[in-house]
Write a structure and sequence with these properties.
By secondary structure, the chain is α/β, with parallel strands linked by helices. The chain is built from ten helices and 14 strands. The mean pLDDT is about 95.
Length: about 325
């Protein structure tokens, strides 16, 4: 990586997630945060001052800027498509915060534009690039617990007030599935290396009409079954347990923990071996996706092998199907 070209980044949006990305770009040596854009110039100026960014632009100015190589889209879900499309149409490589778009139709259109223009495009599913998750996937892949048969995941908390409006507002494509549920969905697909072939789900709606507690049940072509429960308004254990024919894995700090435990048996109920795995992640986990984007662009790749576009679109289709069954359509769709 040391010989690769430094990339100049622009960020559209100045919320909490953009702050974390600005910090990651500062830490990672082959990147420079060159400009920031917001619909509210005062917010962009405050963000720029805080993070030592030289240029404060409008959306149109940031995509027109010839110096910028990559645009990171950090706006609310409802604007992802519009902002990413603008950047791609102006020849910029693009990293889009998850959820990539609101629905699969939007996702497919962004992929079409990026491929036509030979530009790099990726969903910012930062957890996939963490060393601990790469290690976990490797353990699954090398048959450490045998054939994976069941995955149980829970992921929920009472949302902090600073996130509440975004999560609860249908006009901003709120709801737990697009915001939090996408993590365990993407996690299971990443570990198994496949998309579900059978999808069942149910939800509990909030007063504002978005999904507040959601439960998903998936079956994969490998035969594995997944159970996922998620909520933005319930304190839950954030953990993943992966059950295989020779043992199981407990990952108790989902989605960004440094450690997990492998418990092995010999086909009977007694645990014969317990292995603790520790794989340290940076305190800012975004640096690994910055490294991936930099590496891919320098190698002239149009997508990441770890977060490929067909999988991003496939996961959007899974969420579309579930929302359709619940009757959850956003006002702008």
């Amino acid at each position: 990586m040391s010989n690769s070209q430094e990339l100049k980044w622009g960020i559209i949006g100045t919320g909490i997630i953009a702050e974390k990305m600005a910090d990651a770009l500062r830490i990672y040596s082959n990147s420079q945060l060159y400009a920031v854009a917001s619909k509210t110039p005062s917010k962009a100026r405050a963000f720029a001052n805080k993070h030592g960014v030289e240029n404060v632009y409008s959306y149109q100015e940031i995509v027109n800027c010839r110096e910028i190589d990559v645009i990171y889209v950090a706006t609310t879900h409802n604007f992802h498509f519009e902002n990413a499309k603008l950047a791609l149409e102006h020849g910029k490589h693009v990293l889009v915060e998850k959820a990539f778009t609101v629905n699969a139709k939007e996702a497919e259109e962004l992929v079409r534009i990026a491929q036509a223009k030979k530009l790099f495009l990726m969903e910012a599913m930062w957890m996939r690039f963490l060393p601990s998750l790469k290690m976990l996937k490797n353990k699954i892949k090398t048959n450490e617990i045998g054939e994976v048969k069941v995955c149980n995941l829970s992921f929920g908390s009472f949302t902090q007030s600073k996130y509440a409006k975004r999560l609860r507002d249908p006009a901003l494509a709120g709801g737990v599935t697009l915001d939090m549920g996408i993590y365990p969905i993407s996690f299971v697909c990443y570990l198994l290396g496949e998309l579900p072939v059978d999808i069942k789900s149910m939800t509990r709606f909030s007063d504002s009409g978005v999904d507040e507690i959601s439960h998903y049940m998936f079956r994969f072509s490998s035969g594995c079954l997944a159970n996922i429960c998620t909520s933005y308004n319930l304190k839950m254990k954030s953990e993943a347990i992966i059950y295989g024919s020779k043992g199981y894995v407990e990952f108790s700090q989902f989605p960004a923990g440094d450690q997990f435990t492998i418990l092995k048996h010999d086909g009977e109920n007694e645990i014969k071996d317990t292995i603790e795995i520790l794989e340290n992640n940076s305190s800012n986990g975004f640096i690994y996706q910055v490294e991936e984007v930099t590496s891919c662009i320098n190698e002239a790749k149009l997508e990441s092998e770890i977060m490929p576009l067909h999988e991003t679109v496939g996961i959007m289709k899974v969420m579309d199907k579930m929302r359709n069954e619940w009757g959850l359509t956003y006002p702008f769709e």
